[in-house]
């Protein structure tokens, strides 16, 4: 046992910059932490060092992050460092706890019920206004309402503030504001609040009731905010009210990982920190302990190549520039770039390479396939299933909601009441064997394999915790599982992870496959401003920096087998891939231009002015001869009918006849060309663009 004081041992193993973070315990501190640089380690050791030196009382520290999983991980680390009394929560969880406590005295009566999902209420609000919506439109409107509320906008102020934003679901902003207002009325009528209301109401109480504000400020004296680049204006307002006139705040973030602007997140608060808090200390963490030099070099190159990803405000400080990571790991394999003929071929190639990695000893749980949109996952699910490779879809059924996991918890609780003689991992194995757990995985796929993987994840967690926790008991293991269940902090499941780039934030794997890297998907087709394209670049940067050693980037030149090779690799790859990789280097396309007002439209056939909206969409007079092939038009109509039936909406909601005719006559070969046609907005381009281009290529 070392004679070194425990508080000094807390600092062991930290590099110079991490140690600077851990020992700076007073005043405003801004930690600029690049991907893989050990930011969570630095701030948890800072909190623990403050507690063990007596500078902090654990009950007076509030650490805030953005996901329940990250908060649970932080609590676990703090507990292991002897600082278990510190509160680590998400903004919403911290606000909800305060709201539940203060509501009876500040407002009176029971706290309204919390709305888990907005969809049903938004659909009802739209019906009251006699508006036709499908599931996709409801989803888009829900996201827009969430953006408005975290931006602290109400229905009457939304339209002016949202000017210039893309129209959700093709609806004009006034219509969205009407749905927004009807949604709010429904909540009031039924005594309901949503997640944004939790923050808004807490802010309102703290602003209006000085006694409540004083109580909160006496409870919490020191604040730590992780992922500070993702703070919304509403969350920043809540943080300001928690702080009052104090400056005991440590923030951690990386502007190059700002990928949630569509939810209201802004890196402005991070970039303005030293201006707002005079004398604030700044520490940069740039030593990357996660990734090999090859991966780090690619990530640095991607940011260095961007055209204008710097803060554009006058007087920006020098540290607002991207952090350049410095790799600390030994060299590894070079990233692999692959061009495939179609989506199926790309998925099959990825599955083949994953098979090779598995054969070489890389665990399935250390492999991930990351894509831009959730709709891309199906091809990879099929390819992995065909290859007999297990997988888990991040964002699918929650781990603790699975039946076998619920049954396991019941059995483990019962066993914990009569603690056995064996060590905890063996007791867990004995209990779970009655539910189907075996020491070797079943040689099958599907439900049997998925059930085994869930039980194996519980066994693996028992093994891990028994190694790191002293006097670990089965009761402690059950308590850990119950806490993780409440926070949705799932253990590692043995299977390849399929996830969107957004949902992969904060995670890492030994091997990462970045797929579908073609124009229209990366950057996404509706990223038609420089700011939006910059964010797409940051999203790819996040994807690259998830990989520890193996990194593969791929794209396909057509959507389906036999289709015309009209796709181009992402412009972001031009600076990354070796010359000649996947064929010639394609010219970087310019950002899609916003259509401007033009002279009166004229018929392409007879030259007369077009008088109706239908004629303007078609580009010709209604009585002038059509110039499309009948087979193409019928193929488009057949596809539209299937889409309408699938979404349970009238066919014209997908595309009107006039728009279909315009598409059939224009025969667009790229998403950019399709987006230039009247009647094809950004939402429809994202939803239907790939399918339409595929139909045109097969029928032209």
The end-to-end span amounts to 77 Å
Pairing-aware structural class of the strands and helices?
alpha/beta
Strand order of the largest sheet: 3-2-6-7-1-8
Kindly state the number of beta strands: 16
SS summary, helix count: 28
How much strand content do the residues show? 5-15%
- What oligomeric state best describes the polypeptide chains here? single chain
Most strands sheet: 6 strands, parallel
Provide a quick synopsis of the model:
The chain has 700 residues and is an alpha/beta fold. 46% of the residues lie in helices and 10% in strands. The strands form 4 sheets. The protein has a 6-stranded parallel β-sheet with strand order 3-2-6-7-1-8, sandwiched between helices. The protein has a 6-stranded parallel β-sheet with strand order 11-16-15-12-14-13, with helices on one face. A two-stranded parallel sheet has the order 4-5.
Report what the structure shows.
- With 700 residues, this protein is α/β, with parallel strands linked by helices.
- The strands form 4 sheets. A 6-stranded parallel beta sheet has the order 3-2-6-7-1-8, with helices on both faces.
- Strand 9, helix 15 and strand 10 form a beta-alpha-beta unit.
- Helix 8 packs antiparallel against helix 9 (173-189) and helix 19 packs antiparallel against helix 20.
- The longest helix has 22 residues, at 447-468.
- The radius of gyration is 27 Å and the shape is globular.
- The relative contact order is 0.09.
List the topology elements.
Layout: H1 6-9, H2 16-23, E1 29-33, H3 39-52, E2 61-65, H4 68-80, E3 87-90, H5 91-106, E4 113-114, H6 119-128, H7 135-150, H8 155-161, H9 173-189, E5 192-193, H10 195-208, H11 210-219, E6 222-225, H12 233-243, E7 249-253, H13 268-271, H14 273-276, E8 281-285, E9 287-288, H15 293-304, E10 326-327, E11 336-340, H16 343-359, E12 367-371, H17 377-386, E13 391-393, H18 403-416, H19 424-433, H20 447-468, H21 474-487, E14 496-500, E15 509-514, H22 530-544, E16 547-556, H23 613-618, H24 630-647, H25 651-654, H26 657-666, H27 671-675, H28 682-699
Parallel strand pairs: 1-7, 1-8, 2-3, 2-6, 4-5, 6-7, 9-10, 11-16, 12-14, 12-15, 13-14, 15-16
Helix pairs in contact: 2-3, 5-10, 6-9, 8-9, 10-11, 10-12, 15-22, 16-17, 18-19, 18-21, 19-20, 24-26, 24-28
């Amino acid at each position: 046992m070392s004679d070194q004081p425990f508080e000094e041992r807390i600092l062991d193993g930290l590099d110079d910059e991490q140690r600077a973070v851990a020992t700076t315990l007073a005043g405003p501190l801004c930690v600029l932490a690049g991907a893989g640089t050990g930011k969570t380690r630095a701030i948890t050791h800072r909190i623990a060092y403050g507690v063990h030196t007596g500078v902090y009382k654990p009950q007076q520290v509030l650490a805030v992050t953005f996901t329940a999983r990250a908060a649970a991980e932080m609590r676990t680390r703090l507990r292991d460092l002897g600082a278990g009394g510190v509160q680590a929560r998400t903004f919403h969880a911290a606000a909800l706890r305060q709201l539940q406590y203060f509501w009876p005295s500040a407002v009176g009566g029971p706290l309204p019920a919390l709305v888990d999902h907005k969809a049903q209420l938004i659909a009802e609000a739209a019906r009251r206004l006699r508006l036709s919506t499908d599931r996709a439109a409801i989803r888009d409107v829900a996201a827009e309402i969430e953006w408005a509320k975290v931006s602290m906008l109400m229905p009457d102020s939304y339209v002016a503030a949202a000017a210039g934003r893309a129209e959700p679901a093709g609806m004009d902003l006034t219509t969205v504001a009407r749905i927004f207002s009807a949604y709010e009325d429904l909540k009031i009528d039924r005594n309901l609040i949503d997640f944004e209301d939790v923050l808004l109401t807490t802010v309102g109480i703290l602003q209006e009731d000085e006694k409540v504000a004083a109580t909160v400020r006496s409870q919490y004296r020191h604040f730590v905010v992780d992922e500070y680049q993702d703070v919304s204006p509403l969350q920043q307002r809540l943080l300001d009210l928690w702080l009052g006139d104090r400056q005991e705040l440590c923030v951690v973030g990386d502007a190059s990982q700002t990928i949630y602007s569509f939810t209201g997140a802004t890196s402005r608060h991070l970039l303005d920190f030293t201006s707002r808090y005079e004398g604030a200390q700044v520490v940069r963490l740039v030593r990357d302990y996660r990734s090999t030099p090859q991966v780090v070099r690619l990530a640095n190159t991607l940011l260095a190549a961007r055209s204008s990803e710097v803060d554009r405000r006058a007087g920006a400080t020098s540290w607002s520039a991207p952090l350049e990571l410095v790799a600390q790991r030994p060299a590894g394999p070079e990233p692999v770039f692959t061009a495939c003929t179609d989506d199926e071929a790309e998925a099959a190639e990825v599955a083949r390479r994953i098979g090779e990695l598995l054969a070489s000893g890389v665990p399935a749980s250390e492999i991930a396939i990351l894509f831009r949109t959730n709709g891309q996952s199906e091809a990879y699910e099929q390819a992995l299933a065909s290859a007999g490779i297990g997988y888990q879809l991040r964002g699918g059924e929650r781990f603790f909601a699975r039946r076998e996991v619920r049954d396991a918890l019941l059995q483990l609780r019962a066993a914990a009441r009569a603690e056995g003689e064996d060590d905890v991992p063996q007791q867990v194995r004995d209990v779970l064997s009655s539910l189907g757990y075996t020491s070797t995985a079943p040689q099958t796929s599907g439900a049997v394999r998925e059930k085994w993987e869930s039980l194996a994840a519980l066994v693996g967690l028992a093994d891990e915790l028994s190694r790191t926790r002293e006097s670990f008991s089965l009761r402690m293991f059950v308590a850990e599982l119950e806490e993780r269940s409440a926070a949705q902090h799932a253990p590692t499941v043995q299977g390849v992870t399929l996830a969107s780039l957004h949902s992969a934030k904060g995670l890492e794997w030994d091997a990462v496959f970045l797929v579908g890297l073609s124009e229209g998907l990366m950057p996404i087709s509706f990223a038609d401003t420089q700011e939006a394209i910059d964010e797409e670049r940051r999203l790819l940067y996040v994807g690259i920096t998830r990989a520890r050693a193996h990194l593969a980037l791929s794209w396909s030149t057509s959507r389906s087998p036999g289709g015309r090779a009209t796709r181009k690799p992402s412009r972001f790859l031009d600076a990354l891939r070796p010359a000649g990789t996947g064929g010639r280097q394609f010219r970087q396309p310019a950002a899609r231009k916003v259509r401007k007002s033009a002279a009166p439209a004229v018929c392409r056939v007879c030259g007369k002015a077009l008088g109706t909206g239908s004629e303007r969409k078609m580009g010709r007079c209604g009585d002038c001869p059509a110039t499309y092939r009948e087979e193409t038009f019928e193929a488009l109509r057949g596809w539209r009918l299937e889409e309408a039936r699938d979404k349970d909406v009238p066919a014209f909601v997908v595309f009107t006849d006039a728009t279909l005719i315009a598409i059939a006559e224009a025969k667009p070969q790229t998403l950019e060309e399709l987006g230039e046609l009247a009647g094809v907005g950004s939402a429809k381009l994202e939803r239907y663009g790939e399918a339409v281009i595929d139909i045109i290529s097969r029928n032209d």
